Amino acid sequence: MNNFTITGFADEISPNVSEQIRVLKQNDIRHIEVRGLDGKNVSELTLSEAREYKQQFEKAGIVVSSIGSPIGKIKLTDDFAEHLALFKHVLELAVIFESPYVRMFSFYTDDLAKADDYQNEVLERWQQFLEIAKEYPQITLLHENEKDIYGDTPERCLHLLQALNSPQVKAAFDPANFVQCDVEVFPHAYHLLKKHIAYMHIKDARYEDHRVTPAGKGDGQVQNVLEALVADGFSGFASLEPHLSIFDGFADLESGDSIASNEGDGAKLFTVASEALKTILVSEMEQEWK
After folding, report:
1. Most buried one in 51, 68, 131, 190, CB count within 10 A?
2. Could you tell me which residue ranges the Xylose isomerase-like TIM barrel domain spans (predicted)?
3. DSSP for residue 149
4. Pairing relation of β-strands 204-205 and 31-34?
């Protein structure tokens, strides 16, 4: 069984694209979720720069799984016309990168405790995104359940997805972000959103301190979610977004054969995250990941 294709936010390895590619290939990963390239956010690239990076990826045998855009990660009070123009530019970048997905968010509110009061405004803005995206039918918009935005709970994510009611808008499911919002990931969040999940972010965290951990080391029920996805017929990307810092027990992992001692911390931590996911997929779930 090979329900999952591993990809990842390689800018957590290093700002340098060549180093990102090297460590991805070292981990036998042939896909990338593009967010930061040589210290520049993907949304800031010119079309010419994007073409150059696309050629670099092609030469290395790396395929873009998604654009990790910052679209929707602004306040509702910020200038939306300017942001909408940036969204159009991101779609053009996605075409150049031949990316099937663009990751997005649902806006910061002034008072998160009253987030439900903003649902109509959030929906109206996403409807504008979708209207533009209809000109790019090959691209699916992914809403990520980021903490501190409107869609930080599964209930509000579900409302947005159901209200939009479009096959071109799906969920990027992030277990750690739900943990950091003190939400039960499995079964609660998963079962509410399972019909809409098209993409997984592999990140785990602990309820007690909200600290991010390798997959399976926190309270995000990552293995349960992945197993449920398989049972529900999922086939798609599992994207490593480690967000790790040096943690207790890291030295023991670092001494393992899979992590070279001369690597930088970003490369080491990305490899720890990669190995944790592969352990779940291969050892626990008997998956042959791609």
Report:
1. 68
2. 24-243
3. B
4. unpaired
C-alpha–C-alpha distance, residues 33 and 38, integer Å: 14
pTM comes to 0.94
Residue 112 has what pLDDT?
77
Measure the CA dihedral 16/18/21/24, to 10°.
-60
- Residue 34: partners with Cβ closer than 8 Å, 6 or more residues away: 42, 53, 64, 66, 67, 68, 97, 99
What pLDDT was estimated at residue 205?
Answer: 97
* Longest CA span, the chain: 52
Instruction: Give the whole-angstrom CA distance, residue 219 versus residue 222.
Output: 8
- Which pLDDT does position 263 carry in this prediction? 61
Calculate ∠ Cα 193-236-89, nearest 5°: 85
CA-to-CA distance for 33 and 12, rounded, in angstroms?
Answer: 11
Instruction: Identify the H or E element spanning 278.
Output: helix 265-278
Sequential DSSP letters for 53-94: HHHHHHHHT-EEEEEE--TT-SBTTS-HHHHHHHHHHHHHHH
Instruction: Please give the radius of gyration of the chain, using alpha carbons only, rounded to the nearest integer.
Output: 18
In this prediction, residue 254 carries a pLDDT of 43
In the chain, which residues have pLDDT < 70?
245-263
**What is the rounded (10 degree) CA torsion for 124, 127, 129, 130?**
170
> Tell me, what's the pLDDT at 262?
55
32, 239, 273 from 213: Cα distances, Å: 21, 15, 8
Tell me which H or E stretch contains 36.
Answer: strand 36-37
What is the reported pLDDT for 248?
46
